[in-house]
User: What shape does this take?
Amino acid sequence: MFNLIPKYVFNRITDITPEMVKKMGAKAVAFDLDNTIVYDGGYRLLEGAAEWIESMKKAGIPLFIISNTYRLRSRIISKRLGIMAIGKAGKPRPDSFKKAAEMLGINVSELIMIGDKLDKDIAGANAAGAISVYVKPFMTEKIMYFYHKRLRKREREFMKKHKEKFEVSVFD
Ligand SMILES: [Mg+2]
Assistant: This one.
């Protein structure tokens, strides 16, 4: 059984500061692409994301992309941002989170995973033993519209039900 309860909850990835990362006991930060740091299905970074990446790098926090998108797309974004990436990660399987920690030379328990899907990013991070951080999906998905509509509805109900279990919750 997958655990869908995130440890921390934020509105946007850009709300997470280097100080918070250190307080969470993490040495590196991994994140999802679609609806977490780039527009869903696109290449363009969300507002403030470029500055956020810079501030993390400046604070000496290694970053890592873990995405289920196809390898070529993750590779293009990885190259453009200068951040290591695993594409076609197979989330929620825990393998890619463990592999990322290994590539970073840290324990997986010292790795934060930020993502906007409970059943992929959070379930996978929890299964691997990483620090799971849920962020609100930036926009309504146009790709697989009905699938996502149902998924987001279930997620909202789940988040409401388990709200008292999050350590930090600034979610609307
Ligand atoms: Mg996503």
Q: What stands out?
A: The chain has one domain: 8-169. The longest strand covers residues 111-115. The pocket of magnesium ion is lined by residues 32, 34-36, 115-117 (CB under 6 Å).
